[in-house]
Amino acid sequence: MDPRVREHAETIANHSTGIEAGDDVVIQLPKEAEDLAVALHEISGDRGANPVYLNYSKRADRAFKRASEGFEEPAHRRALYEETDVFVIARGGLNVTEDADVDPETNAAYNRAMEDVKRTRLSKTWCLTQFPTSGHAQLAGMSTEAYEDFVWDAVSLDWEAQREFQAGMVDILDEGDEVRIRSGDGTDLTLDISGNSALNDGGEKNLPGGEVFTAPVRDGVDGEVYFDLPLYRYGREIEGVRLRFEDGEVVSHSAERNEDLLSGILGTDEGARRLGELGIGMNRQIDRFTYNMLFDEKMGDTVHMAVGSAYPETVGEENEVNESAEHVDMIVDMSEDSVIEVDGEVVQRNGTFVFEEGF
Amino acid sequence: MDPRVREHAETIANHSTGIEAGDDVVIQLPKEAEDLAVALHEISGDRGANPVYLNYSKRADRAFKRASEGFEEPAHRRALYEETDVFVIARGGLNVTEDADVDPETNAAYNRAMEDVKRTRLSKTWCLTQFPTSGHAQLAGMSTEAYEDFVWDAVSLDWEAQREFQAGMVDILDEGDEVRIRSGDGTDLTLDISGNSALNDGGEKNLPGGEVFTAPVRDGVDGEVYFDLPLYRYGREIEGVRLRFEDGEVVSHSAERNEDLLSGILGTDEGARRLGELGIGMNRQIDRFTYNMLFDEKMGDTVHMAVGSAYPETVGEENEVNESAEHVDMIVDMSEDSVIEVDGEVVQRNGTFVFEEGF
User: Fold this and answer.
1) Peptide bond before B104: cis, by omega within 30 degrees of 0?
2) pLDDT in tens, A310-335
3) CB contact, 8 Å: A51 with chain B?
4) CATH class of A3-155
C-alpha cells in the first residue's frame, strides 16, 4: 500500500473527524479506494470504533435510478444513519461520466426523496474526501501518477497554518453585512449576509479544505453572475452558467452547455432557485483546476456560490435556513478584473486579499 | 457484462428471495462482484425496492480485527439489520487466505460480539451466493474461466426438479427418530433427530442449494466421525478432523492440519462444541470438490455436520435450539464403504438413496 494512503487515513481520523473509542463509523468508498478503506478499518480497530463499510458505486446508483419509477426514503438507510456517529465518504471511480444518462428529473426526484436522510447525515460528524483514480485524473487532463501526487499533497497541508491565514477573512465577513462581487462584464452581485456566520474550513468536513464560507440571507441576493468555470454534475459538464437574481431568487438562467441539466437542478424545489452558500477559495496550494469541485472551490483567486441548501451552522438565529434537496457549487474566477467589497470597502482585488502583501 | 451475471441476479431476486416493492434490501458483495451488484440494483429499482450496498472485504475485516483489542456490537449495524427485509450476500475475493493471520481467539471474540446481530440477519429473508473470482478458482485448482462456468451453471439449476428429488429424503427424516452414519473405519455416529424438522434446500438461502438438512437433538449425538474433506475457515485449511461425541458434546478432537484453528472454533462458546446441523448433499450437478463449503456440502455422495448454531426452523418446539456464535460445516465422503441408516433401515448405501435406481 502507498504510505500516503495511510497518512490520508490518519488525517481523516485525527484532524477531520476525531474518530474515538465507541464511535459507530460509516466508511463509504468506491471500490478503487479499498486501500484507504483498509487503513480506516485498521485505525477504527485500533481506537475501538466500529466500522460499517458501504460501497460508493456510481454504476450501481445509475442502474438503480434508471430502473426506478419513483423513490422513497428507505427505513434501513435512515436507521443506519441515525445510529452513526462519523461518516467518511470518498469520491473516486474509474469514469466520472458514469451517470451521464440519468435524466435530470430522475436525479431531482431521487434527491427530494433522500433530502431528509441526507440532512441526518449532515447533522453528524462527517468528512468528504477524494481517492485519486484514473477517471478523475482524466477529467483533470493529468496522468494518474501526477494526479495521485496532486491529491495526496493537497490533503496533507499544514491545516493549522491554513486556518490562521483564513481567519482574516472570517473576521471581515462576520463583521460585514453586505458583500458585492464584481468580475469582468458578467458578474455584479450583491449578497446580504447580515446576521449569518462565516466558517473557517481547515480540512474538516471537506478534505482538502481551504475556504471561508457563509450563507446569504435567503431573500438578499440581487444582480447577475457569470460562472467562468465549468462543473461536472451527474456525469455531465455544465459550462458558461449565467444566473440573474431578484430578492434572492433566480429569475433567469442560461448555460452554454447542458442547460437542460441546469434547469433540472434549479427545478428540484423552491430552495434550489436560491443561494445556500457563498464561499471564498483561499487554498493557494491547489494550483490548477481539475474540474472537481472539492478542489476547485478551495483555490485561491476564486469565489463560489451554491444554489440549494444552506449549512445550518452558517445561518444566524434570526434568518431562515434555505432548504433544498440540492446543493450545487459554481465558481467565479477572481484573478483578473475582479473585486470583492464588503460594506463598500474592497477586501480583495484580482485575488489578493486586503490583509496580504501586494494588495 | 456477462449475461450470466444478470441471470444470476434474476435467480437471486425471483427464486431465492422474492424481492418486491417496498423491500429494504442489503446487497453485500466483494468489490470484484460489482457487475452482480449493478444487476441487483437494476432489479431493485425496477421493482420499487430500496438497496443499501455494503462492501464484503476480507482485507478490511482483517485489518479491523487485527487492530482491535475487543469487540462490541455496533448500534448502527444493528439498526440497519433490524430495518432490512432482504439480505443478499455473495462471497468472492481475490485471495481466500486474506485473513489467514487473524488469530483464532480474535475470530471467536468477534463472532461472540456479533452473534446477536447475526441472528437478526438470519431471521430475515436472506441468500448467500458466490461470485466467481480468481481466488476461488485457484482454491479449486481451476482456471478462472472454467470456474465461472462451474459457478454460473450451478446457480442456474432447475430448482423445482431438484426440490422434487430431495422431497424423498425429507419424508424419511421427518418420519425418523434416529440417524446412524457409518463410513470407513473413522465414522460411526448416531444422531437423535426426534421432534426436529428436515428442510428441503432448493436454492433459497444458499445459492446453489441442493441439500436436505435438520438439527440433531442437542444432547443426542454419540460416537465418532472423521471428516474426509478439508475445509477453509478464516483463510486457513483445516484437514483430517476427528470428533468424538458423548451426549451431544465433543469430548475429544484432533486435526491433521491447523488443529489450533479447530480448537479455537470449538472453544468459541458452549454451543460450538455441539452439532447444530446434519445435512445430506443431493446436488449431483456439482460434480467436483472446490474447497468451498457453499458448493461442497451440496454434492451428492456426501453428508455434512456443523458444529455451532442450529437453524431455529429445523428445531421442534419441544427441543432446545443449539445457540453459538459459530457455525462450521464439515464433510464426510459417503461414496464408498458408507451407509446412512434411519431407525435401523439403510436409506443410502455408497451415495445411492433407497428411492433411486441402482440401490
Assistant:
1) no
2) 999 999 999 999 999 999 999 999 99
3) yes
4) alpha beta
**Mean pLDDT, range A41-63, rounded to an integer:** 97
CA distance B65 to chain A (A): 6
CA count, 13 A, side-chain hemisphere, A359: 12
Q: Which three cell numbers stand for residue A202?
A: 481547515
CA distance B45 to B29: 18
| Residues B244, B205 contacting (CB under 8 angstroms) | no
What does the pLDDT look like over B234-275, one tens digit per residue? Answer: 888 999 999 999 999 999 999 999 999 999 999 999 999 999
Task: List Cα–Cα distances, A302 to A282, A296, A333, in angstroms.
Answer: 8, 8, 5
- Write the single-letter amino acid at A128: L
pLDDT tens, residue by residue, B288-312: 999 999 999 999 999 999 999 999 9
CA dist., res. A137 & res. A295, Å (int): 13
* Lookup: cell for B89: 450476500
A41 and A51 in contact (C-beta within 8 Å)? yes
Q: Which helix (H) or strand (E) holds B227?
A: strand B221-227
Cα separation, A186 vs A337, in Å, equals 11
Contact A180, A189 (CB under 8 A): yes
The boundaries of every CATH 3.40.1830.10 domain in chain A are: 3-155
The reply to whether A1 touches chain B by the CB within 8 Å rule is: no
CB A178 within 8 A of CB A194: yes
Integer Cα distance of B251 and B244 in angstroms? 6
Residues of A in contact with B55 (CB under 8 A): 29, 31, 34, 37, 53-55
Question: Which of B 72-111 lie inside 8 A of A, CB atoms?
Answer: 72, 74-80, 82-84
Separation CA A25–CA A301 (nearest Å): 36
Q: Of B28, B34, B54, B68, which to mutate for an interface test with A (greatest number of A Cβ within 10 Å)? A: B68
CA-wise closest residue to A265 among A329, A331, A315: A329
How far is it, in rounded angstroms, from Cα A221 to Cα A214? 13
CA A334 to chain centre: 18
Mark which residues 13-42 of B lie under 8 Å from A by CB. 22, 24, 26, 29, 31, 34, 37-39, 41-42
Inter-residue contact B284 to B208 (CB < 8 Å): no
HSE of B103, CA atoms in CB hemisphere, 13 A: 6
Left, alpha or beta for A282 (phi > 0: left; psi -120 to 50: alpha)? alpha
ipTM of this complex:
0.90
pTM, rounded to two decimals: 0.92
> Quick one: which of A131, A44, A47 has its CA closest to A96?
A131
Helix, strand or coil for residue B171? helix
Q: Please, which pLDDT band fits residue A232 given cuts at 50, 70 and 90?
A: confident
